[in-house]
Amino acid sequence: MRAILVHGMGRSPLSQLLLAKRLKASGIEVGLFGYSTFVPFNTSLNRLVKRVAKLGDDEPFILVGHSLGCILIRAALPRLGQQPAGCFLLAPPNIVPRAARFFASNPLYRFYTGDSGQLLLDDAFMAALPVPEGIVRVYAGTAGYKGKWSPFREEANDGVLSVSETMLSDGHEPILVPALHTFIMNSESVANDIAAAVASL
User: Fold this and answer.
1) What are the pLDDT digits (tens) for 46-61?
2) DSSP percent split of the chain into helix, strand, coil, nearest 5
3) What distance in Å separates the CA atoms of residue 109 and residue 191, rounded to the nearest whole number?
C-alpha cells in the first residue's frame, strides 16, 4: 500500500515525518506532499492531482491529511482517475471554523492564509466538498482548553477546532484523540489506527 501525506496550513512536510516513520514501519510506502498558502489554492490542488496520478493504477493507495491538507484532499477527489482506498483526515475543518470567522478581518490572517483562508470562510465551498469513498477516518483532538474563557466553552476541542467542526456531513463520528491541533499527527494511536485500517484492506 502507498500513502501520500498532506500537511496542514502554515506547516511543511517536516511536520509529518514522525507519522511517516510509523507508517513505514507498518509496511506502508509513504510520500510527502508539500504546498504553501502563499500559492493559490487551485495551484496546490492541481499539483496534488498530478502527484496522485503519478502513482498509476496498478496499486491501491491512501491519502492522509492534516487540517487544510484534508480540504485539499477532498477537493481533489472528483478529479482523480482512481479513488483512494482510504482517506484519513486529521483535525479537518469540515465546516467553516469559528476560528477562521474570528480572524477573518485580520490583515495578517488574510496575508498568511491567502485564498485558502478565504475558502475556509466560504460556506458554499465547504459544504460542496465531497465525502470520500472507501475507508474514511476522521480524527479530532480533545486536548484544547475548555471553560469560561475558551471560545469553545465546554465543548471538546483541540485548541483550534471543536470536535463538532471536524464532523463530515454524512455523520461520520470522529475518533477522539487527546492531542492539540498542531500536533495530532504525532499521536501514536492515530498512526496505529491508520496502519490497522490499511491492514484490513
Assistant:
1) 999 999 999 877 789 9
2) 40, 15, 40
3) 31
